[in-house]
Amino acid sequence: MTIADAGHVQEGDWLVGNPTGLQLASALWIGSVGLLILGLQPVLLGALYTEGHVTGDELALVATAEMIAIAIGSAIVAMLLPARNMRWKSAVLLVVLALANFWTAFSESPNSLIVARTLAGLAEGGLVAVATELIARSRRAERIGGYFVTLQTLAQCALALLLALYAVPAAGSAGGFVALGIVCLISLVVAWIVPDDYADLPKDEHFANVLTVPAMTALLSIFCYFMFFGAVWAFLEPLGAEFGIDGRTVGLMVSASLAAQVVGAMTATVFEARIDYRFAVTVIGAVAAISSALLASGPGLVVFWAVALVMGFILLFIVPYQIRMAITADETRTAVLLVPAAQLFGLAIGPIAASLLIDGENFRPVPEFAAASALASVALLGVFVLAGRRRVPA
């Protein structure tokens, strides 16, 4: 089934509203532009570090500030602003993001970079909400969510390849960020295809809908899962170095893992309706914990490669099932709108929390922390299931 098929004009496909396939695809693309940076950070931020614009600590601050800003931006637009004039909002956010990318390209100081990427993150979060607001209105939100993560990861892979081969070698990090800004401006054409007004979801007392045990445990489970991945991903190169694996090989692993993410997202899209979300979240959480434990055990090259590929595959495979968990927690679908925020906060907090455990050149506590985060995600699913059972008789 294609994205266009998913958005085919049938009243039964949507809780409210009835977007065309082209409108749905446009909204998913706008959201994907907001998340391009997640796949491009190793290329662009790595170039900033290599060129001496930032130190290692400053680089971590730049990356963390942007991810937290994306989470805040997506939550603000989804929770506080009405889903009206979405074409204008998309266009304005794309222009702001383009300007922030151009600002980044010509920033001279770390503080300027942090401010520029924070502004970029807020705009990127708003663009993500353009997609998630529409996904939340679909009766098959899990499947549309699968299409969304597949599209964004394919776009990340393609653009990362172009930047690494052409833009960055020719013009450095500045060329990469300028190219990213140009992608935003080109996407203005797509912004005018997005549905202008999304039909309203039942959002009365929407904060109360989220402040329940099922909704909070569902979002915390998602947060902990992405904290696991964020911790390992941020320190993959020093972990490899500790076990005798050179940086170039780890770079190849990162590229291969991005491809595995695409495969994982596409596989989940095919099988999401056939696997119970509780089973999927439990098994994937266990796989995440085992993979992290293997990294902590001092693996050889083959095992390290296998773990990198497995982690890439499960990262996006789980997303449709997390969406289903959030829908089950809150039938008004308000909690679903906060799923991207929970994911991005996890990606941002994971490296910070894990870094507190690092002792000198010993990075083994990082995968140990990641394993604990993955197990916490599964434990929170258990709390979620118990809370749901108690709620049914009431």
TrEMBL record:
What keywords tag this UniProt record?
Cell membrane, Membrane, Transmembrane, Transmembrane helix
Is the Transmembrane keyword given for this protein? yes
**Predominant subcellular localization, coarse grouping:** membrane
Give the record's membrane topology: Multi-pass membrane protein
Q: Which residues cross the membrane?
A: 27-49, 61-81, 88-106, 112-135, 147-168, 174-195, 207-236, 248-270, 277-296, 302-323, 335-357, 369-388
Q: Where does it reside? A: Cell membrane
Q: What is this protein called?
A: MFS transporter
Write down the species: Mesorhizobium dulcispinae
